[in-house]
Every structure is written in C-alpha cells, then in structure tokens.
Request: fold
Amino acid sequence: MLIFLLRRFGVMLLTILCLTFIVFWLTNLSPNLERLAKTQANNRMTDEQVVTWLDARGYNRNIFVKYGEWLGIVPGWTNEINEVPSGRCIRAGVVDVPEYCGVLQGDFGFSTVSQEGVSEVIGRRLSLTGWLMLCTFLLMVPMALVVGIAAGMREGSRLDRGLSTFSIATTATPEYVSGVIFIAIFTSSAVGLKWFKGTATSAADDITFANFTLPVVTIALYGMGYIARMTRASMAEVMQSQYIRTARLKGVSFKNVVLKHALRNALIAPFTVIMLQFPFLLTGVVIVESLFNYKGFGWTLVQAAENNDVELLLGCSIIAVIVVLLTQLISDIGYVFLNPRVRVT
Amino acid sequence: MEQLDWTGSLGTFLDPILIIAAAALLITFVAQMVTSFIWTPSVETFGAPVKRNPTDILLLIGQIALFTVMLGVLAYIIGGNLVATESKGIIERIATQLRPVWIGMALIFALSFLFKKRLGLYGKILDNKLGLIGLGIVLFWVLAAILATGVCVGEYCTTPIVTHDELQQLSGMKNKKPGWPVSGVEGEYFLLGGDKLARDVFSRVIIGSRTVLSIAPAATLFAFMVGITLGLPAGYFTGKLDTILTFIANLVLAFPVILLFYLLVTKDIVKTGIPMYLAAVLFIFPLIFIAVLLTSRFKTRPGELALYLGVSMVLGFWVYLGLAFSYDPFGLNLFSMDPNTLNIFVSVVFVNAPTVFRIVRGLVFDIKTRDYVAAAQTRGESPWYIMLWEILPNARGPLIVDFCLRIGYVTILLGTLGFFGLGISSESPDWGMTINEGRKLLSVYLHPALTPAIALMSLVLGLNFLADGLREESLRD
Reply:
C-alpha cells in the first residue's frame, strides 16, 4: 500500500511538472507576451517598445531559466535600470530580498491583473468556489443516486424508461444552455416569474436562496445525469446477481432486497464516478461563474487567461491539476476500501 | 403589416387538442412512474383473461396521448405547407420554409423501412423508439445544414430554408419579437425575431448548424483514428509502450479543458504555427492507420498491396498536405482549411483523442484473452493483423456507441468555445457565440439566446438518444 501511494505521488509530481511547464511555455509564446505588454502598458506600443518593455521585466530570456526561477531552483532574476533595482523577487515595501523566490519557497508569484500576490487571489477565489461546489454536491449526489437506484431496481420498467430519458436529457444540456433557459424562465421580465436573481455577484458576501439557487442547479443538473446512468447500470447488474435472486426466492420483500441487500454493492461503482466528476465540473464552474458573474476560481481563470496573467494562470493550473489527480487517487484508494475483492498491487 | 401570431388558422382547432394531449401525456407519464411501484404492468397472455390494473389503464391513456401529439405535430408540418399564405402563423411558415427537410426525411425514412432487414445495426435502430426519435432529430439537423441555402441538381433547385442572409442587417429590426414584418418589404417576416444587430435569428440558427455539423463529426473521426492507432498497440503489447502512452494520455486528460482552450485557441497562436505542427502530428495518424490496415491484410499478395497502398497514400498525402500545411502540389487547393477553423479542429481532436485511446485500450485488454485471438496467434498471424482484423471488428459495438456520444460531446465543446468567443470570427452564426451574445439582453429579449440554445440542446439530445438506441440494440445480439 505504501509503495503504491509513493509511486502514485511520484507520478503525480511528474504530471504537475510537465503540465505547469506546458502552461509556462504556452503563456510565454511571443504573441502572448506581446499581448501582456500591450494590456499592461499601452495598447498602441510599437514593436520595439514592446521588446524593451519585455526586456526590462525579464520576459525575453531562456524559458528553462525562467521556469527554474518560477519553481525556485534558480536564483531570481535581477536587473538595474537607472539605478533602480528591479527583479523577480523584489516587491514594494519588502527590504529583505530573498535570493530564490519560487513555488518551492511558497511564493506563487505576482498577478499582473489584480496587482496582488497569486496565493492571496487564488485563496480568496477558491473559498468562494468551494461554497458553490459544496452546495452543488449536496444537491447533485443524492439526487443522482436516488434517480439511478430507482431506475436500476427494475430494469426496463416504466420508471426506468422515464428516469433514464430524464438523465440522458440532462447530459445533453450543457450549462450554458440550461443556465440561459433558467435565467429566461425564472428571472427575466419577459416571462415575469422573477423568482430568483440572474446574477450571483451578491452571493460572494451573503449566500441566499434567491441568488445561489440557479448557479447550483445549473451545474448539478448537467453533472447528475452521468452519475445517475452509472448508478443505474451498476444497480441493474447487482439486481441480476445470484444472491439477490436467492433473497427473493427466500421471500424477502422487494423493499428489503433493494435497501438491505442490493444498495450497498450497487454504490461501489458510482463512488468512483462521483470522485471523477470533480475535474469534469471544473469546466462547468468556469461557465456558470461567467454566466452568473460569480467571482470565484473559474471567473479568475477566465480573467487570467484573457489578460495572459502568466503567474496567476500557472497558479490556477496547479490547483486544477492537483484537484484532478487527488480525486483520481482518492477514487482508487476508496474503491479498494469499499470493495474488498480488489487489491492494490 | 401586422406581427404574426405563433399559430395561424390551423391553430384555432389544433392548439387546444395539442395542449390537452401534451398535458395528458405528461401527467400519465409521471403517474405511471409512481403507480409502477404498486402495480407492475400485466403481461398479455393468450387465452387467459387479463385483469387490468391502474398502471395498465394509465399506459393506454399515455399511448393515446402520445399518438395524438405525434399526429398533431404531423398535422402542423403537413397542414402548414398546405394552408393559404395569408392565414399562416409563425409555426406554419417555419414548417413551409423547412419543406425540403421534411421531404428528405420522409424519403430517407421510407427507404430505410423498406430495406430494414438488409441494413444491419442501422435497420435495428428503426425498431427502437428512443433510437428512432434520436435518428429523426439528427437527420433533421443534417438535412437542414445541407439544404440551408438550397441545393441544385442540374436545373432543379430546392427552395432555400433561410429567409434572409445570416449577416444582413435590416434597419428597424433590432431586437424585434418573433413574427415581426420586415419594414418596407411586403410578405417578409423575421420568423423568430431579430437579434441586437437586426439580423434574422431563424436564418442564423439554420446556418449555424453548418459550423457544428461540418466540424464535429470530422473531428470525432480524427480523434477516433488517433485513439485507435495508439490504443490498439498499447493494449496489445502493453509494457513500456503502454506506460508511456498512458502517461501522455493522462497528462492531456488532467489538463482542464477550458484552460487548454484558452491557451491554444486564440487568434495570436496561429502566428506561432503551433496549430499547424499539432495538425501535422495528429493528421498523420489516419494515414498510418490506413497503411497498416492494408499492409497487414494484403501482405501475402504484394501486387494488390502495391496498388491499394499506392493509390490511398497518394490521395492521403494530398489531403494531408492540404489540411495541415495548406499546401497543394497540384496547385488546386481542394483541401485547405481556414487557419482559425484548423485551430479549433485540432484542439478538439487533441482533447478527445486520449479518451478514445483509453476506451480502445480497455477493449483490447478484454478482447485479447478470447479464443479467436489465441487461434490467430497460433496460425502465426502478425500482431497488426490480429489487432486490426480480429480485435477491432469485435470492438465495434461500444466504439460506434461512443462515436455517437462523442459527436454530441464535441458539439457541446464547440458551443463552449463559441460561448467564450474563442477562435471564431465575431460575425459567424455559431450557436455558442450567439448564445453568449444573446444572454446579455436576456432579461428583456428572450428569442436571440433561447433559439440557438434549444437548437444545440436538441441536436445533442438526438445524438444521445441515437447512441442509447444503438447501445440497446447492439447488446441485444
């Protein structure tokens, strides 16, 4: 088990290194740097001005050296223009300038858009998204499991047909479609129901039923269809197994068969699916946060990408990748604990 | 001229019937699901009298209601084409505009039902209710995309479906409601209203289907080619090759899709040539696939091999050079892609190929333990022959189902790209982009955003229904 965990962590670390390097390389491509210069300084800069601007800030150097600096294994770059020292590790108001300042030193860099440290920005935004994800999972998981179990307990019945069609329909409705339809029905003055609010900006300070329902429902609906279908498949398989037939023949009531005998075994497979749903929801979070103007992690990612805010983007991608890999790890380990027939080798 | 109503003269008697039938359908459907907990539907047995329970009765009512709804919709489609132009409402007019699509669908369905027995899996889909509905929706959009501006065969041309040019801005039509008459032109209407730049929403949605349907199936096909070409050896040989390929696949899968799109699908990135290099790598896989496919089959017959391989490789490389490098040795430029489209296309293939790879690899793991594979190995067949001519045909069921689902998923991805305004020119009638533009005024004007949203949803729903029908029918064998 320990060796398995160590190996998995090793692969995880390697994946993170590769992915952050790819992001680093893509954000440091010359057209992206040019855009960064123009958004940061002046939109009508000439090509030469762009080059001097980038030179002065150390962008036009070897990519491996820059990546090493960001990681914290190469000393931070310094420069002196007109006797004013500038450099990677120099921040306003800090007297003791460290030699190394990278991720290994706990410094995720500086966001050019919000003029703040990346860790502060991401920390704040992530807690907002955390609430959104929490509410979504509290709604999505029970709903999906109930739908899946009810559909799978009698395969081919009317109930199964109805619920399966419903789950297919939800997987066919991406967030930007269902969100738009919900906003149109429940918030617009054209329909006139006005039950909820069309934006969730105010939910950042105070989560209420009116401003948080629609974003949560929008994400949950798209995510639940897949879990429900997997639960249904797993439940249908369990219901056909020998021990269920034996229980039925012994005269156990259908209710008891479903709740006491089938349910536990049928929930092993959906556990994996639910865990793997986290990374899948990330795209949904980005869409919903832009749609409802909720300033969380997804919204930050869009802002960072649009302005080519290199270090903020790198921070976002680290978080995203860690979430993906951790959920994969948890789903693998959890599967072993839930299903004693499987052993980690 | 006055604004059109939703329904014209047909509506006076069809509307109430349709509303009642639809309500009955919905109520009985929900009621059935509830009552099926208590009473299961009784099975008809010959001779023995059947005691009907409430679920049976609800089932009967539901079927009648469904039949009525279908008849009502059919009446609108046919009747809408027949009634006099002055008494047509929006729905009847749309039904008239879509006439070529209805005729095409009727022809295809009639032919399919006629030759059902000979059509294999496709024929079986026609027996599956959900699959049939899915097929109908997909066929509708495919035909609408093909016939949008009219198709000519010799002298005879079909009438165009669109009422206006998708980019044309007409004065005074900004954000107008559905059925608004075009000022100054007698008998012309914006059937589904105008958007914020005074363009016809109906025509834009119909034309928008072309973007989706020209990219999504082709991109999915390429993703499958890449996934299959790499997944087969990874699953068959395992070992180092498998470890490396799986690591790369997981690397791409761990990348948040949206971040990758933001980094890859920008207008500036075309200058660096990355999409071109990516295309050069990804588009070579179909060529490898075809070459290996032919080599392994005709290894013992060098004459035929040289002929087939020669023809397909010359053609293949011609298309390859055109698509990836916009270079044509013959100077005809038959197969070139606009750089932005290429960028989107390549990114979508790149994101989807690893998933296909994992599916194929899993299937190969399963199938290579079968007896017929062992038999082929004993015969001394080459590994590639076994992979491509023994394993792959036996993995086709799940792959076809996933192909349908994946086209739907790619449609959603393309919509996401449009929604964030990535890679597509701002004038194009792409559905995702239109939704994004329309949502800003959503609290006042519903139609500009809602129409493409429903269009996109219906297409993906149709593809998912089709996939589900295919899954059921292929499992039945």
